Amino acid sequence: MSSAYLQCIEESCGRRQDANEDPHACAFCGGLLDVKYDFDPINPKQLRQTWRQRRLSDDPIDRSGVWRFRELVPFVDPGAKIVTLSEGFTPLVEAPRAGSWAGAVQLTIKHQGANLTGSFKDLGMTACITRALSRGVCWVACASTGNTSSSMAAYATRAGMKALLFVPFNQISAAKLAQALDFGALVVEVGDNFDAAFRLLLQVAPELGLYLVNSINPFRIEGQKTIVVEMLEQRGWLSPDYIVVPGGNLGNSSAIGKGLRELKDLGFIEKIPRLVIVQAAGASPFYETLRTGATDLLAVDAPHTEASAIRIGHPANWKKARRALDWVGGFCESVTDEEIAQAKCVLSQDGIACEPASAATLAGVYKLVQAGKIERNSDVVCVLTGHQLKDTDYIMRHRTAGKEGGQRIHVEAELNSLRRELQRALLEK
Ligand SMILES: *Cc1c(COP(=O)(O)O)cnc(C)c1O
Ligand SMILES: [Zn+2]
Predict the structure, then answer these.
(1) For the segment 217-271, what is each residue's pLDDT rounded down to a tens digit?
(2) pTM score > 0.90 for this model?
(3) Is residue 302 part of a domain?
(4) Of the candidates 284, 306, 307, 359, which has an alpha carbon nearest to the alpha carbon of residue 101?
(5) Tally of structural domains, the chain
(6) Closest ligand 1 atom to the C-alpha of 247?
């Protein structure tokens, strides 16, 4: 049996923690924690076959894009109940138009919007709610830009737990809020941005005995790291040159870095893809920190961008993300809201849509090819983190101006005027 433990990531500390406590920070220095493993001997060739065979199984655990790879997340006690909603198993789709637009790269999309609640957060949530259930937790809580809350609410009710979420007032998309309410969560609207809501939650959580499922919870990261296992399996274990993700609280990029490192160390892949993290210009603390070489995070007090999923000024996982870039190589870029809107438009022309934060990836690739940092003809995978319908307000704002995208006309319900309007519209299109 492989065994799991928690360890502080700070080099000056690095101490192991009492795993039964399930802390979300180091008890000694307050640093972030990793879930680490003493893996049983692993035979990559055999395991790859086992994972493939499980695809044919009808057992929900075998079909989950997280638990199909359970040998790489061996923190679940034998016999413990796994809370799954068949997360993962998301498609890898070629995007030829977007690839040539971005500068003649071979572009594929890993679409996490195909998860049950419509974002990649489901991968982390199945892991962390499974962990919470095994600890007898009643109340789970998070602060969120929207998708963590939809996902937490779904998995919590599935597991028979109650869900409390803190969201910034009037700052998250209606669709995401609706999902959380639909799943029966208690929603507290507080503060002007994610960081304020999160800070307050951190203060009250211990008093109220709440189990935090934000991405500082290291079990979230474990679920999320399996995206690269599934992606590489879908690619016949051939690494792309680059994997590109949007960066908000930087949990996803941290998870991808950890996943790639483990796959390399365990002998599943030869070459490690480089990781590219893309932030929105009005909310780019990590980009600025790396660009200036600052040793401490250059937090942003009033983050702003239309891509609400990455509107975060003080990313909790920035040290893990920096470590991920050290491990696998790569860089961080920042793009404007205009560049995001344009990239989203280009993706749509390939029949692939997403929420605005996800489109930051393609905008980043475009910019990096222009700058000569990503080579033409590179093999690039963009991770689209959330579903098109997560933010329909954004689409209606951007698409009814008639510049690009679809066109909307209102016609009188009378045959002659309908014919007239149609003739004109068809000619123009
Ligand atoms: C949460 C989220 C992000 C940001 O991920 P982090 O792990 O916080 O960096 C990006 N896009 C979407 C759609 C999200 O829901
Ligand atoms: Zn520590």
Answers:
(1) 999 999 999 999 999 999 999 999 999 999 999 999 999 999 999 999 999 999 9
(2) yes
(3) yes
(4) 359
(5) 1
(6) 9
